[in-house]
Amino acid sequence: MQENVGIIILTFNALQKWHVIYLKLAMPIQDINPDDIENISVLKGPNASALYGSRANNGVVMITTKKGKAGEGYGVTFNSSVGFEKVNKLPKMQKLYGGGYGGVFEEAEINGKVYNYADMYTDESWGPKYEGQTYLSWHDLAKWELNGKKGNPTTSVWQTPAHDIDDFFETGVSFTNNISVSQATDRASARISYTNTDLKGYLPNSSQQKNVFNVAATLTSADKKLETFTNLTYFNSRAKGRSEIGYGDNNVMVKFVQWGHRELDMRELKDLYILPDGTQASWNRSAWDDPTPAYSNNPYWTRYMNYQNDGRNRVYGNVGISYKILPELKFQYKSSLDFFVDKQYERNAVNSQELSKYMEISRQQYELNNEFLLMYNKSFDDFSINANAGGNIMKRNYEYVYGETNGGLALPLFYNLKNSVSPATAYNLQRKKAINSVFGNATLGWKNTLYVDASLRNDWSSTLPQGSNSYLYPSVTGSFIFSELLKDVSWLTFGKLRLGYAMVGNDTDPYLVMDTYLHYTSIDAPTGTPGYIIDTRLRNKTLKPETTNSYEIGLEMNFFNNRLGFEATYYTSETKNQIIPLSVSGSTGYRESVINSGLITNEGVEFALHGTPVKTRNFNWETTLTLASNKNKVKELVEGVDYYRLTTAPFRVEIGAIKGESYGVIMGTDYVYDEKTGEKIITEDGLYDATDGNVSLGTVYPDFTGGWSNTFAYKNWDLSVLVDFSKGGRYFSTTYMWGMYSGMLEESAANAIREEGIVLKGVQADGTPNTVVADGQAYCEDFYTGPAAQSVLKSDYIKLREVNVGYTFPLKNKYFVKSLRLSAYGRNLGVWGPDVKHFDPEMVVANSGNVQGIEGGAIAAVASYGFNVNIKF
């Protein structure tokens, strides 16, 4: 199951949250059905904002949906696919030692017989080496207890489990079916589409069902002047058992890799995850004679008893009308609605290691956009002009309701807020926002050679104070198609030079101007005491809009009848007056204050090289190579402040912004280096010395990214291959830190370090080469107590992103079938890099927010494979 998706376009220009907006028919939207997509284009950074407002400050993904087309008449398309998901990368675990501590067994006497057992209370794997010893396992004890403790328990062999953690994960299977019907004439068009997806995830007890219904229609008057149009979509999703992400009790990856016993067999865990009396059998017993879970649930109990459900209903679309006043002048009015309701339910069952609970979350939002537009398009002599002027009224209302039991559940298996031992906690939030806008843009062309594009937009935002809630931002771009003047140069097909400037203003979230009260109460009021408290964030009545100025220059050239070409872009931008929360002294009665501050610059290049190396009658090869690099710098923060914390990782590091350095640096303790040799200094215990305080351990963002796509076509066969790569950037891995500390990862047992110790490369305090043998377990535990830099990994990778192969049957309208295509695909097929032994770096750093670089319990990397059939009638 896909858990999250992130996208970054060009720059990182905000100390606080930022996002890219998805526009479907110029309407913001996220839940998009791939079967309804006709085309995708990208508008980058602030240059998109002049057209689509400050919400597009970080870029726009423009999606055009399918509709009936004149001349195609009546058509039916059926598309069906089956896909499979399989975990293809898990951390490498050591397979030499089992659970426990100190390398020895504990002893228990049962009915006069003494048994060896691994300390089940300890959730680490510093137990004895596997040598075929006989021991009493948690599974033996659980079966004996189930049998009423009759006789003596059975025993097991101390060895590598036959069914390790990779056997915990299942093969995910998905079925997607889409049918669409379209009809078009010279005056009207209509398309109706329905898509159903049914997915069983690769995690036990995970599934998702989606239904998408779309209708698009147009109707034109007989004189071709009046046109009405609509595009409406209903989206429904139901999911069960999504993976918890990060360091949490219900993330099985934390219990498999960061903590645990390495001798555990997954089949045994599954056999006894729930007992006849409704309790669980956990390997992590409080004592050999006490089955109460100490730290960890049985992982199957986690997946089948402590899962979450969620559902979403969404309706979005638009309806509009346009009228051609003159052949070159048209007026258009469009009303767009996006409405969704999310429901989320989480539970921890009675008899779990943690306190039982039930939680409900409801989110509801609607956004209404009313837009009017006057469009003018005229060509005369050597000139052409395309101009638009209009306005938009946006209103958004967001409601959030949260409820959670308090003190546990009174009755097992009854998940209701009324089943709370103590009065349940309730919280609700409502936010309203409105933006009124007027805008205009014009493109003036001369002889298909010179073009000037200019735009001007003014927004009035409800989230900014009076006097500062209006912000005007222009853009201008000039382009010179010099190939029009060089038509006698046979090898030059196309050449264009462009220069651009854009400024954009940006507002903030609601209710940051005036102080507000927060209302907390229990559901069972008046039993619970309702009350109001003052928010700990001090508002600011003098906030100003953020401002970004960007400049861009680009060159596009195609050669040899488009057999070879490239596009190169250089850009720079500056964002100031950012609206950020600043920590203040608790003596003020507040935790933070909202201010305008900060200056971030971005500078980067993008390059794309495309070509057709081979083009014959039956064979064609097209290739495209893309590269992108962005360098950012924090020029200013708050006066007197040189460091701004963005977020904190559990236990060790922070991600922050340092004045004068790149945005998004990892702050933690580093190695101490010898000034003369540059070598790491080793302590008297043979371990790495650590700095006294936090220092910069590198930026989380890459130096450059890119991709290489190749498409091959031979007669009716086609093959496409996509490779992605990223160079530079780092991330802090909580899993690596705890996996070493607890003796779970492969390195914790490599090279006989548990028996012989390890001599770390470096020098002692006097500069002489290190010869001290460090204890192996002490070395691994030092990943938590020593330099945090030990758990900072490189994000570099090369990935085989996707391979597609297909065959299109040459039917030529035979048997009333217009076309038939069969295809197969594979995605995320392999990854290579310096630090990919345990993790797929992309699964760690991909994030839809502006804070990245922390791995707290990454989900497993998954490869997907599938087959597709597409039939058109």
UniProtKB/TrEMBL annotation:
Biological-process GO terms, alphabetical: siderophore transmembrane transport
Subcellular location: Cell outer membrane
Domain TonB-dependent receptor-like beta-barrel as annotated: residue spans: 282-829
Keywords associated with the record: Cell outer membrane, Membrane, Receptor, Signal, TonB box, Transmembrane, Transport
Gene Ontology CC annotation, any one: cell outer membrane
Molecular-function annotations in GO: siderophore uptake transmembrane transporter activity
Membrane topology, as annotated: Multi-pass membrane protein
Keyword Cell inner membrane: no
Residues in the signal sequence: none
InterPro entries xrefs: Beta-barrel_TonB, Beta-barrel_TonB_sf, Plug_dom_sf, TonB-dep_OMP_SusC/RagA, TonB-dep_OMP_SusC/RagA_CS, TonB-dep_rcpt-like
Record's keyword annotation contains Signal: yes
Pfam families listed in its UniProt record: TonB_dep_Rec_b-barrel (PF00593)
NCBIfam families to which the protein is assigned, alphabetical: OMP_RagA_SusC (TIGR04056), SusC_RagA_signa (TIGR04057)
Protein name: TonB-dependent receptor SusC
Species the sequence originates in: termite gut metagenome
